[in-house]
Design goal:
It is a single chain. The protein is elongated, with a radius of gyration of 16 Å. With 84 residues, the protein is an all-alpha fold. It starts with a helix and ends with a helix. It has one domain. Helix content is 77%, strand content 0%. Pfam families: DUF5676.
Length: 84
């Protein structure tokens, strides 16, 4: 069975877009807890930092993360099909 690279890429891009929207909304509505969680994720003390969440940053991140996810999963599917 082959994996359809384009279908997988679109699925990954949509999934990451949804995750980006959820993450951005969480940062907007709960900035302090999200800063604490982010600090734990990177093993750093981020308590002196602040979030900068703008509409342009939101859309740039949405497009960038979705694009990177789509391209990465497309490449994984192509390589998987070549190795099969």
């Amino acid at each position: 069975m082959s994996i359809k690279p384009t279908t997988m890429a679109i699925s990954a891009a949509i999934s990451f877009a949804l995750l980006w929207v959820i993450c951005s909304a969480t940062v907007h509505f709960f900035p302090e807890p999200m800063m604490l969680i982010s600090g734990h994720m990177v093993h750093a003390n981020l308590s002196d930092m602040n979030w900068t969440l703008t509409w342009s940053g939101f859309f740039i991140g949405l497009i960038a993360w979705s694009g990177v996810a789509g391209i990465s999963v497309w490449l994984v599917a192509v390589i998987y099909n070549m190795l099969k």
